[in-house]
Structures are given as C-alpha cells and as structure tokens.
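Hey, quick one: can you model this chain's 3D structure?
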Amino acid sequence: MANDDNVDHLRTVERLSNILKITPNLKSISIIQHDEPLILEEQHLALSKKTFKELGLFSRQTFLKFIKKESSPSRDSTLDELSTVLIVLNPDDNKYWNYRKRLCQKCSKNQTDKLFLELKLSSCSLKLKPKCAEPFNHARWLLTNYREIVSEQTIISQLKMCEDSAESYKHNYYSWIHRLWLVKTFFNTKLLEKELEWSKGWVESHISQFCGMNYRFNLLLISSAHQNLDSNVQKCQKFVDEVSYVVDLVLFYPGTESLWCYLGLLLYYCSANQIECEESALFRVRAIDNRFSRRFQKRNFNPEIA
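Sure thing. Here's the predicted structure for all 306 residues.
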C-alpha cells in the first residue's frame, strides 16, 4: 500500500513539475479544499490541502534519499522534478535552490532557455509565498552569472515579478531590494526614467505604504549621481520638484503617516546637502498643520529651509 502511495506521489510530482515548467505566465498558486490533487484553469494553479501536506513531506524525504545515490539519468531526472516542486512548496529552504544552482553550472552559459526556466521557477515560487528571500537571491545569482545573455525583456519580466510580489504582500522589502538591485545593476537612462514614472503611479495608488516612497527616493539618488550637469542647482532640481510633489500629496492626504515620513526624509536630505526648497511648498504644509515644526524637530530636521 505504501509503495502504491509512493508511485502516486511520484506521478503528482512529475505532473506538478511539468505544469510549473511549461505553463506560460502562471498567474497564481493557491491551496484549497478539494478532492482533486491538482487543478489548473486559465493559468491559475490550485493544490488540495491534502496534496500540499503529503506531497511536501514525500518530496523532502525522497529528495534527501536520492541526493545520496550515485548519479544516473533516472536519479538526476527525479531530483530535477523534486527540486522544482520543493522550491515552490517550501521556498525558504535554500538547499533546494542550491541544487538548482548546481544544475545550472553543468550547463553552458549561452543556454538562454535554462536562464528563462530558472527565472520562471523563481517567479512561480513567489506565487504561493510572495515574501521570501530565496527566490530573489536565486534570481540575482542567475542574472549575475548569465549577465551576457540577459535581455531587456528579461529585466521587464523581473520588474513585473517584483511588482506582483509587492502587490501580494505589503511592505515586502525583499521585492523592493531586488527591484533596486535591478536598476543599479542594469542601469541605463531609459530604465531609470521608466522606473521614476512607474514609482510615481505606485506611490499614488499605495499612499499608506512607505516602501514605494523609499524606493523612489533611491531612484532620485541614482538619477542625481548619474547626471552629467555642471550646475548643482540643476542636479538637485529633481529633489526640489519631489518636495513640491509630496507636499501636494500631503495636502490631499494630511493624515497619512507615510507621506509625512517621506517628506521628512526629503527635507532632511535637502538640508544636509544645502538644497534650497521652495518656501511656498513648506508654507502650504504649515497652513494645514501647525504641528509641522514639531514633527520634524523630533527627527532633527530643520523645517525653516529658505
């Protein structure tokens, strides 16, 4: 009876592994109460609670058993399928990611299909657990080691992965760290301008989340560092404009703490770098909140920036 169960589990592992590898743009993975072990409809994958529990345990035990065996086509194929399933069911355990890395190292660095597959599996693992460090770590390892074949479309798909995971889990710093790494590592002016425009839309639609604002601030720092302008005033104009932009948001959402924190961060930076902000922008804030000075004095800010 146990052998029959093992055969059934192996079949389920093979089926799930194939789904993860060949389904284009898998939209979601969820755990539901159902009699069917796996359900795939319109690029949405669901596992029954029973399958999730039993398959996870079986896959871990079988992986540890097979990893000790001598290499053979059958053994390697089974480990490939098991590791594919395990990085989705248990993405926090880095031993399965390390095995995927060893598989990659056996392949030529010109194999773009291998790169795309591994990045896709990283993305799939975030569907079930969006706030997890290991998928992002694996993606950065891949992009670093296969950098010569990384295309613009690859970067776009990675940015989309970051957006989806940040949308699925609030304050997902793993996602924002990876997004900023992408901009810094594959920097070009077009990418930076697109990200500045995208981040503006994100901030306005996620007004209570500081993560997006902090990301936008880092983009401004990158932009300032890469500007080839002689005038310090010109170099800092984006920060002056950003202060005015955030003041407008504060006026519209005066009770939103994240906006006040972001405004304080901008003012502190401007003060530390002797950047003159528009007095009219600060006056508009004081007009609606006489606690403005006290808020920033607590953070060692100087609100009296002329």
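One thing worth noting: DSSP finds 14 helices and three strands in the chain.
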